[in-house]
């Protein structure tokens, strides 16, 4: 399955045999290099290496540096190999992250409510653990042949008490640097004018690959926009679909 996913990668030419062969050769060279630097790299599959390679546009040196930084981060940020719900109890009680349904490509759908996050009560280390917990659960629920997820960021009711620039940048840093090529698309819905002031501060911290995946959705076109990629049966009821929201800690794979 892993080799098939690599062969059918749409990055850099999809089914083009030359591009696929070039990618495989670069990935092999990258593996030799990173395993020399950190023996733990031997435990990482080729699909993971490929995501880091693609995130750096097939530049072996840059991709290797990014990957080795990830291995170092994981040893300290996730020493047990996973984040337990006991480690993020305060964050989970806010019931702000949900996971249910899949889009037409089979990508898992996560929903985040920005107005349920409060800067004043946020503890940064626990918040970072929540981000890792959410990303790990989204990734673990992906079917074979799919490596990305879809996010809906709902900002209805968002105000100054919810504004957490440091938290947003920390979440971006984790997703972009340690979970590269995992985000398929992010819909920003019910965006208040006030949020755009925060967006101007956050935007420079978003890399070009991620920027291309972010879609601001007008309220009047909300359901129609979601239905371009998601069947009505998989759209949350709050957006005119048929699916109930499920808190991420209660969501099954």
From TrEMBL:
Xref: Gene3D superfamilies: CRAL-TRIO lipid binding domain
UniProt-annotated stretches for the region Disordered: 1-24
InterPro entries reported for this sequence: CRAL-TRIO_dom, CRAL-TRIO_dom_sf, CRAL/TRIO_N_dom, CRAL/TRIO_N_dom_sf
Location of the CRAL-TRIO domain: 85-247
Pfam families per the UniProt record, alphabetical: CRAL_TRIO
Protein name (Swiss-Prot/TrEMBL): CRAL-TRIO domain-containing protein
